[in-house]
From TrEMBL:
Species this chain originates from: Ornithinimicrobium cerasi
Region called Disordered, residue ranges: 311-342
Lineage of origin: Bacteria, Bacillati, Actinomycetota, Actinomycetes, Micrococcales
Ranges that cross the membrane: none
Any Pfam family: DDAH_eukar
InterPro entries: Amdntrnsf_FN0238
Record's protein name: Amidinotransferase
Length: 342
């Protein structure tokens, strides 16, 4: 199994989803609701899209942990990859978030599930940097090559290079920071809208890196181990073609099946030769999520991959504590602790 493609993921079923007004200023991908559409209708449509993503991943053989969220003050909680990442060897990172109304998306019940179901050795929490105005929004701000141990980051106020270097020192990655802008000169807000790294293929909008030397360095670093680089256009990036993620699905004929999860909109933007390049190593799993994409993120943003070893399955005698957690993983105590992480 590739270190790049996790076989288990975390999704958050945000029952009060709407595009977040606190992130609209610097997220060029974010859009307003259609005229006359209510928040209630938006939330209902988004829930159906979240369930469709979960169902598609389950059908592909991916283990999916779904956490409900009924809190109306967390409009972007459907995007957990911004506050959490997991890493081989039992390491977990918790990140500082730019928008203040996103900081209480961090949840103790998610961390407790990881500790109970997977082998977690250390949790490194960078969220204490928020009062200093220093941010690194997880695997939105970084796109990680877990095979070559490189952290790619488009520099922005959501991806501070000092925190990037600190993360890389703590987790043994090589930092690869670069400027990335659109045709209007607007900085890319999250690296994962312009780049996706799989085991044998990478999707990246090289043309949005204005420095030709840095652009070539990124291309070379991505392809050093024989990985095929699929160059995306800015138009395809605006259709979320870069916001994809490779996952590990079921075993077929003794081999693991790899899938590339993306939105239907992203899939339709790809040219036939690009699809062919992806499908040489992955099956594309595409789900239409137009409502969620109004918030400026797509399928990759919805998925927090679990790069941890599972604990052995045991059947202990039930206890009061275990029953309480199983009955309601979103307890009031869990919410208080999670908010305290910020």
């Amino acid at each position: 199994m590739s270190a790049q493609a996790p076989s288990a993921v975390i999704l958050v079923r945000a029952e009060k989803f709407v595009p977040n007004p606190a992130t609209a200023a610097d997220n060029a991908f974010q859009r307003d609701l259609p005229d006359g559409q209510s928040d209630e209708a938006t939330s209902a449509q988004a829930l159906a899209e979240m369930d469709a993503v979960a169902d598609a991943l389950l059908a592909a053989g991916v283990t999916v942990h779904v956490f409900p969220d009924e809190d109306h003050t967390r409009p972007d909680s459907v995007f957990p990859n911004n506050w959490l990442s997991t890493h081989a060897g039992g390491y977990v990172a918790v990140y500082p978030m730019y928008a203040s109304n996103r900081r209480h998306e961090r949840r103790a019940d998610v961390l407790e599930m990881l500790k109970s179901s997977y082998r977690v050795q250390t949790i490194i929490d960078y969220s204490g940097l928020e009062p200093d105005g220093i941010f690194l929004e997880g695997t939105g701000a970084m796109v990680l090559d877990h095979v070559s141990r490189v952290a790619y980051a488009a520099v922005s106020h959501r991806a501070d290079t000092h925190v990037l270097e600190r993360f890389c020192a703590d987790f043994s990655y090589e930092p690869m920071a670069f400027e990335a802008v659109d045709s209007d000169g607007v900085a890319v807000y999250h690296t994962n809208v312009i780049a996706c790294i799989g085991t044998d293929v990478a999707l990246v909008a090289l043309g949005m890196i204005p420095d030709p030397d840095r652009r070539e360095q990124v291309r070379e670093r991505l392809s050093v181990n024989g990985r095929e680089v699929v160059d995306l256009t800015e138009e395809q990036v605006r259709e979320f073609a870069g916001n994809a993620v490779e996952l590990c699905g079921r075993t077929e004929q003794g081999r693991k099946r790899y899938v590339m999860a993306m939105s239907g909109r992203a899939r339709r933007s790809l040219r036939p030769e690009q699809v062919e390049a992806i499908e040489r190593s992955c099956e594309i799993v595409a789900v239409d999520i137009p409502t969620i994409e109004l918030a400026g993120g797509s399928v990759r943003c919805m998925i927090a991959g679990i790069h941890l070893d599972p604990r052995p399955v045991v059947d202990p005698e039930p206890t009061a504590t275990a029953e309480a957690i199983d009955d309601d993983p979103h307890t009031a105590d869990g919410q208080d602790v999670a908010q305290g992480l910020g």
